[in-house]
Amino acid sequence: MGRLSGKVAVLSAAAQGIGRASALAFANEGALVYATDINYEKLKEIEKPGSIIIHQLDVTNKQKIEEFAATIPKVDVLFNVAGFVHHGSLLDCDENDWDRTMTINVKSMYFMCHAFLPKMIEAGKGSIINMSSVCSSRIGAVLRCAYGTSKAAVVGLTKSIAADFSKQGIRCNCVQPGTIDTPSLNDRINKNVQMDPADARKMFQARTPAGRFGTAEEVASMVVYLASDESVFVTGGEYVIDGGWSLT
Question: Can you give the residue range of the structural domain that contains 75?
């Protein structure tokens, strides 16, 4: 018996990075996992009949989310992972950049929670986990204006859901990773025209007291805890996993 045996979990952005590691961890702990992503070809790599069911989903499309939610009669865990990192200060961020960031990082969570929360309320229990960041209301990071603002909004959304629905058995928490070694991070490092990729990696590692990047699997371990009944008395929390970056 795994820690999530008998539970049904829905994840966004499950094709790679933290979403992928969490989908695999959920399945290994006995959950039936609905893994979604806009990148269906990449998503196919983790499909496991009877364990991980994959579904192509654009989490900025309210209608598609509602249609998908209607096919799932029960959900115990919702992990909202999808996100976008805009690079720049406020003056580097035009209206389209701002709107895209807020749509992917915040509005998508509103859509997903709005679609799946009623199922949890009907069942009298459920765990919602939202992807925030230490770059949010916790710390400010240079050249992360739109991103940090959006992740601070995720904290507010998380606490609001926790406050409103705790009496119905719903828990809502957010995770706040620091610099995690993921394909998304490596893609941003490699596309940075202002810094050599090797120097960029050293810079990111140097700002973390632990002296290294975190791994997607380490974040997934925290998420499994928040999804499990081990955390049944935990709600409205911000769970930092950043190697000490937010202490500096």
Answer: 8-180+215-247
Q: Are 81 and 12 in contact (CB under 8 A)?
A: yes
Report the domain count for the chain.
Answer: 1
pLDDT one-digit tens code per residue, 178-219: 999 998 888 888 877 577 888 888 888 888 999 999 999 999
User: How far are the Cα atoms of 116, 160, 199 from residue 165, in angstroms, in the given order?
Assistant: 13, 9, 46
40 and 56 in contact (C-beta within 8 Å)? yes
pLDDT-based confidence at 169, cuts 50/70/90? very high
The answer for residues whose C-beta is within 8 angstroms of residue 178's C-beta and 6 or more apart is: 133, 134, 208, 214, 240, 241, 242, 243, 245, 246
pLDDT digits (tens, 9 = 90+) for 64-98: 999 999 999 999 999 999 999 999 999 999 999 99
Whole-prediction pTM: 0.96
Please say whether the beta carbons of 222 and 131 come within 8 A.
no
Q: Which residues are catalytic?
A: 147
Q: How far apart are the first and last CA of the chain?
A: 41
DSSP-assigned beta bridge partners for residue 126: 170
Residue 208 lies in a domain: no
